[in-house]
Write a structure and sequence with these properties.
- This protein is mainly alpha-helical.
- Bound molecules: iron/sulfur cluster.
- The site of iron/sulfur cluster (SF4) has 13 residues, from loops.
Length: about 100
C-alpha cells in the first residue's frame, strides 16, 4: 500500500467514525428530567402536562403539530431547536409550543 493510499484509508475511516457519532448524537432522546426540559415543562406525553401549572396547554397541542418540530408529523421522535441535538417525542409538549401555521 502506498503512503497516499494509506493516508486516504485512514481519512476515510476517521470520516466514517465522525459520521457514525453524529448519527448517534442525532438520535439521543431528550429526558424529561433534563434541566432545559424541566424549565420548559416538557413531557413526552402531552396528556401528562400539568394544566394547573400550564393553563394555556390543550390536549391537541403536540410537538408534531408545533412550528418548531423538525420531524415529520408521523414521526415518533424528531428534532427541536430548543433542545439541540436531542429529539423530542412527536406526542410531547413544552411551554414554548407554537401552533404550526
Ligand atoms: Fe415540542 Fe414545540 Fe416544545 Fe419543541 S418547542 S419541545 S417541538 S412543543
Amino acid at each position: 500500500m502506498t503512503v497516499s493510499r494509506r493516508v486516504f484509508m485512514m481519512q476515510a475511516a476517521a470520516a466514517s467514525g465522525v459520521l457514525a457519532s453524529q448519527q448517534a448524537l442525532a438520535q439521543v432522546k431528550l429526558e424529561e428530567n433534563d434541566p432545559q426540559a424541566v424549565a420548559l415543562g416538557y413531557k413526552h406525553d402531552s396528556t401528562k402536562v400539568d394544566n394547573k401549572k400550564y393553563p394555556k396547554h390543550a390536549a391537541t397541542q403536540l410537538c408534531n403539530n408545533c412550528q418548531l418540530y423538525q420531524g415529520k408529523a408521523a414521526d415518533a421522535w424528531g428534532g427541536c431547536p430548543l433542545f439541540g441535538a436531542k429529539q423530542v417525542a412527536g406526542k410531547g409538549w413544552c411551554s414554548a409550543y407554537v401552533k404550526k401555521a
